[in-house]
Design a protein that fits this description.
This protein is an all-beta fold. Helices cover 0% and strands 53% of the residues.
Length: 45
Amino acid sequence: MKAGVLFRWGSLWVGAHWSRANRRLCINLVPCVTLWITAPGGVTP
């Protein structure tokens, strides 16, 4: 399991998103700031 923070202008949304293909949860509490958590075997951004 890995986690991190990503700053990106293209992430202008607020909310959470789970990707089955990448086995990753992305959470945006503030636009352009993404907290991501990758499950074992998942793909990091």
